[in-house]
């Protein structure tokens, strides 16, 4: 049987000399520091965004709560209420033209971006390395390196140009597209000149777990 080492004997004496519970008083403090707790805490849950669905309700008719839904409703008044139709149709046409322009900007940005990406891959130079038996191998190696460098610059330039075009197209589409506020302005204008108001009917929001299916709000 091996004799205990000097280090083991010293450690045993220190353990006997310390009062009982000393380790229990010091260890939790090291574990429960704010930095340790922040590291051990679970990451915050990311809640997905969700837009409450809505539709327009006029009497016993229901339409989508969008510009296209309002256009569908307005077309139903062409024969029954031509005065209402003539007053609101120009404003709806302006918003529809705005939506068409927004879609054209988005498509143009996407087309330019895709074309730029294709040219970034297809428009490269053909770079062939010189053989070992080449008498001008030093100069040809330099030319080969310059060719590869030009290809790298070419790819980076047109890929960035393509991504920028897509980004600009998306920003233009977002800025030009009619939003919910534009539809509500139409609803407000309609309710000012019509005896039968339009009501905004809200749906169910699964994010907040709120059942709003029976809530109707007039504007």
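Q: What amino acid sequence fits the structure above?
A:
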């Amino acid at each position: 049987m091996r004799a205990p080492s000097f280090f083991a004997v010293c450690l045993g004496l220190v353990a006997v000399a310390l009062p009982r519970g000393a380790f229990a008083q010091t260890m939790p403090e090291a574990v429960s520091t704010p930095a340790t707790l922040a590291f051990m805490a679970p990451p915050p849950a990311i809640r997905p965004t969700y837009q409450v669905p809505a539709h327009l309700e006029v009497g016993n008719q229901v339409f989508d709560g969008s510009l296209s839904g309002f256009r569908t409703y307005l077309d139903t008044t062409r024969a029954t209420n031509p005065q209402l139709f003539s007053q609101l149709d120009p404003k709806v046409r302006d918003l529809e033209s705005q939506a068409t322009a927004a879609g054209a900007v988005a498509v143009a940005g996407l087309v330019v971006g895709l074309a730029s990406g294709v040219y970034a891959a297809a428009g490269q130079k053909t770079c062939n390395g010189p053989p070992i038996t080449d008498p001008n191998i030093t100069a040809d190696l330099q030319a080969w390196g310059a060719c590869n460098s030009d290809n790298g610059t070419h790819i980076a330039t047109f890929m960035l140009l393509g991504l920028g075009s897509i980004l600009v197209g998306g920003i233009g589409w977002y800025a030009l597209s009619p939003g919910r506020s534009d539809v509500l302005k139409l609803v407000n204008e309609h309710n000012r000149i019509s005896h039968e108001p339009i009501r905004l009917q809200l749906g169910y929001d699964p994010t907040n777990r709120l059942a709003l299916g029976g809530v109707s709000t007039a504007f």
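Q: And what stands out in the fold?
A: The chain has one domain: 54-218.
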